[in-house]
Amino acid sequence: MTEAACIVIKRAVKSYGDIRALDGIDLEIPPGECMALVGHNGAGKTTLIKLILGLARPTSGTISVMGQFPGTSGFDTLRCHISFLPEQAIFQGSLTGRETLTFYARLKNAPTQGLDQLFQQVDLLEAAGRKVSTYSNGMRQRLGVAQALIGNPRILVLDEPTTGLDPDSRARVYAIIEERKADGVAVLLSSHALTELEARADRVAILHHGRLRACASIPELRKHAGLIPELRIKAGQEQMSALARHFAQCIEPCSFVNGVAVLNCPPRDKLIMLREILNLGLAIDDISLAEPNLEQIFAAYTDRTPAQ
Ligand code: ATP
Fold it and tell me: Which domains does the chain have, with CATH numbers?
């Protein structure tokens, strides 16, 4: 992957005095991939983003972005290819949306024509002539996303891009990411919104206390963590008792939560267990198989129990 990767991080360490904000990070992001960066508060996500953008230097190790080292003079020529959306984008309220994007386009040395297309993409075309001070929080956030898209960057670094957005706008942001990915753009997306990352991230990098605990696709993370899918069966009281009796000797434990029997179901046993349940001839209201979600995966890699 190293040859083609847009971002290559090798054994990166960043210390602030006694604090090791990052401790030996190895990471590569190829073109066309969306990598989610997740971690608890203080895990080191912002520090890693700062190193990639050249806003801080690693204490040791190397960061290479499109073949250049952030923070060095050669890197300046690349800046227009790397876009960053900060967690809380702050804009000048007295400027209109259009003036704001024009300002950023000039800063990035990008054409100031075609900005309407960006407004359209983030559903702000009608508000483009209004002062930013009259925008709602969600509108400001969408203006931030439009700002990040100026000049067709090859790398998008997005810090919590969907914060404060309604479901339609969230879907719109992810659709834009998909579109850019298809065009070969590498996307690094830092987020605490684990549920919405599930179907969207190609790989997830889990940072914990400055260390990279894992970096893989969600199915791979699930497999390596040894997390087992759950078979959930909804039925009446009598059926529950019968299920409890039947599965009492089972190797995998069975629990009952809010009238639902939850059976650990290793993938290889799926059909066997389903057949066994059907053979019991019980009246069952519903049955479903739930794969461990990203919150459970995250908890497994960071040694915590997911909040219920
Ligand atoms: P959050 O989700 O809260 O934004 P984060 O994962 O982005 O957290 P960082 O901001 O990268 O975490 O911080 C990682 C660690 O480095 C924390 O312990 C933090 O206190 C420390 N740190 C970050 N910047 C500095 C600094 N300039 N000086 C000293 N310590 C710092």
Answer: 7-224 (3.40.50.300), 228-291 (3.30.70)
